[in-house]
Amino acid sequence: MPIIVNLDVMMAKRKIRSKDLADRLGITEANLSILKTGKAKAVRFSTLEAICQILECQPGDILEFREED
After folding, report:
1. Which CDD domains match (predicted)?
2. What distance in Å separates the CA atoms of residue 45 and residue 16, rounded to the nearest whole number?
3. 12: phi > 0 → left, psi -120 to 50 → alpha, else beta; which?
4. pLDDT in tens, 18-63
5. What is the CATH topology of the domain spanning 3-65?
6. How many CA atoms lie within 13 A of 29 on its CB side?
7. Contacts of the segment 22-30: beta carbons below 8 A, 24+ positions apart
8. I need a labelling partner for 45 at 20 to 30 A (CA). Which of 13, 32, 62, 64 fits?
9. pLDDT of residue 69 exceeding 80
């Protein structure tokens, strides 16, 4: 898939654990894991907005488009 999710990278930069982020987002750690691994089929803008607020970043810091070879 050409959309790469760099959520784990931003979490490491901000030194926040999955459990803490999931708690602040109001989602389960399992659902956060699905987002982190890029297995999610979609992400709600409200969730993306909350992630960006908590991690103090832009959507482009989390989501990246790469052409397939």
Report:
1. HTH_XRE
2. 21
3. alpha
4. 999 999 999 999 999 999 999 999 999 999 999 999 999 999 999 9
5. 434 Repressor (Amino-terminal Domain) (1.10.260)
6. 5
7. 24/50, 24/54, 25/50, 25/51, 25/54
8. 13
9. no
pLDDT (average), residues 4-20: 97
Question: Tokens in use for 10?
Answer: 């931003």
The 3-state DSSP class for residue 64 equals: strand
- Contact between 62 and 48 under an 8 Å Cβ cutoff? The reply is yes
pLDDT at 68: 81
Cα–Cα dist 64/69, whole Å: 16
